[in-house]
Amino acid sequence: MKSGKRGPGRPRSFDEEQVLEQATQVFWAHGYEGASLAMLQAATGLNPPSIYHAFGSKAGLYSACLDHYVAHFGQYTSDALSREVPDRAGLAEFLLGAARQFTGAGRPGGCMISTAALELPPQADAVARAVAGRRDTTLGLLTDYFRRAQAAGTLDRGADPRALGRYFGAIIQGMSVQARDGATVDELAAVARVALTAWQEPAGTRR
């Protein structure tokens, strides 16, 4: 469906969802700095004035693509970490979902949020903050998951939810980098299984 949003000038005459999908693939593959306007124009069919008219700037387009990525490729995160009863199986679902997502056929490897905007110049500080904020959101979801697991009695009371959140955030980011380097879904799943040994079951239930 074509976008019904209107800017200060003419109505948009392109399919916004399709443009965001095409631009997302470019940013995902090349990062924010590496994705030139020429690349974005070739992928989307929009010339730079059209991109600026529709999204305000390259940074504005990137921000819209981050939203698109989360909505279409990051659903496994919210699905796994919003389980009514948080437990080790839900964490496994999160990690294995990431392994599958990061190695999906026909798209760039890894996670766009983890790896597409790590090194940015000072003038792109707003972009860096936006991406860091999204990574912090995932860390918050993980930390909350572990806190809820303690309250539900599925995680040992002595565990540190914040440290576990940081640990599994680091695992996800590392899996993303390895996927960019060519790691397979089976190799990343093996990493996930090792990481899951950090889950501490409540005293009395350990085997």
Structure, explained:
This protein has 207 residues and is mainly α. It has two domains: 16-69, Homeodomain-like (Arc Repressor Mutant, subunit A, Orthogonal Bundle); 74-198, Tetracycline Repressor, domain 2, CATH 1.10.357. The chain is built from ten helices and no strands. α6 (88-102) packs parallel to α9 and α6 (88-102) packs antiparallel against α10 (185-195). The N and C termini lie far apart (54 Å).
- The helix-strand sequence is HHHHHHHHHH
- Which of globular, elongated, flat, extended, rod-shaped describes the shape? elongated
N-end to C-end Cα span: 54 Å
Q: Work out the strand percent.
A: under 5%
Structural class: mainly alpha
> What is the helix tally?
10
- The CATH superfamily of the largest domain bears the name Tetracycline Repressor, domain 2
Tell me what the CATH architecture of the largest domain is.
Orthogonal Bundle
Strand elements, count: 0
| CATH level-3 fold name of the largest domain | Tetracycline Repressor, domain 2
Instruction: Give the total of domains.
Output: 2
Question: If you average the pLDDT, what whole number results?
Answer: 87
Helix content: 55-70%
Produce a short descriptive summary.
This protein has 207 residues and is mostly helical.
